[in-house]
């Protein structure tokens, strides 16, 4: 594991490289963010934004979505991965929000993960970006980059989240989530990472194992 001073240096450098981190999903309300995040599984944010640009112009509330048939919603979102399961989950989640939560997205983690299609990552993305909570959402990029760097040594996204919550200072976790995502997309890619170009290579466990 890295020393706390190294962790602080990494966070500082990431902040310099990606100075204005925010989700790249387009949304106007917590509900729109929830739907966009559900759609984003195994799909790029750019692809989701292309879908929601049209989708949210037609349907923008839980009531709107709960009145759709699964087939109708499938037609609207079929250009994204796993669209059949996503359509079913979105309609059921919209129905629950309409009936149990007065059409509002809950701001409690346990309530969010009880919704169909909403796991830990999706719940934390919504809590961080819609409600300003100091949580750590772990997607495939965050999991890969934080383990490669040596910020954590964790076998699962859930364990990665637990370890990152311990080492990333309060108030920086939402930014760190985006920093790690951007670094994973731009430099620390799943295939052919740009290790020799990386500004973090002096700290990186992966670089030191394979390039030194």
Write down the CATH class of the largest domain: Mainly Alpha
Q: Please identify which CATH superfamily of the largest domain we are dealing with.
A: Hypothetical protein, domain 2
Low-confidence stretches: none
Strand content: under 5%
Q: What fold name goes in the CATH topology slot of the largest domain?
A: Endonuclease III, domain 1
Fraction of residues in helix: 55-70%
Shape from CA axes? elongated
The tally of structural domains comes to: 2
CATH architecture level-2 label of the largest domain: Orthogonal Bundle
Radius of gyration: 18 Å
Mean of the pLDDT scores?
95
Work out the oligomeric state of the chains in this entry: single chain
H/E element sequence: HHHHHHHHHHHH
N- to C-terminal distance: 18 Å
Total helical segments: 12
Strand-pairing-aware structural class: mainly alpha
Count the strands? 0
Topology:
Elements: H1 4-17, H2 30-39, H3 45-58, H4 62-66, H5 70-77, H6 83-100, H7 109-113, H8 120-131, H9 140-149, H10 157-167, H11 173-186, H12 205-210
């Amino acid at each position: 594991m890295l020393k706390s001073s190294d962790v602080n240096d990494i966070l500082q450098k990431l902040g310099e490289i990606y100075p204005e981190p925010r989700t790249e999903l387009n949304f106007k309300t917590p509900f729109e963010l929830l739907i966009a995040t559900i759609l984003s599984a195994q799909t790029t944010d750019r692809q989701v934004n292309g879908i929601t640009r049209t989708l949210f112009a037609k349907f923008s509330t839980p009531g709107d979505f709960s009145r759709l048939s699964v087939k109708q919603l499938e037609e609207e979102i079929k250009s994204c991965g796993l669209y059949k399961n996503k359509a079913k989950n979105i309609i059921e989640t919209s129905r629950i929000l309409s009936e149990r939560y007065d059409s509002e997205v809950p701001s409690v983690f346990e309530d969010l993960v009880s919704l169909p299609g909403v796991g830990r990552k999706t719940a934390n993305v919504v809590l961080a970006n819609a409600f300003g909570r100091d949580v750590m959402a772990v997607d495939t990029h965050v999991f890969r980059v934080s383990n490669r760097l040596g910020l954590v040594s964790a076998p699962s996204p859930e364990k990665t989240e637990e370890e990152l919550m311990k080492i990333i200072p309060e108030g920086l976790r939402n930014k760190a989530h985006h920093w790690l995502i951007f670094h994973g997309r731009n430099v620390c890619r799943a295939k052919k990472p740009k290790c020799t170009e990386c500004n973090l290579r002096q700290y990186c466990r992966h670089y030191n194992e394979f390039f030194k």
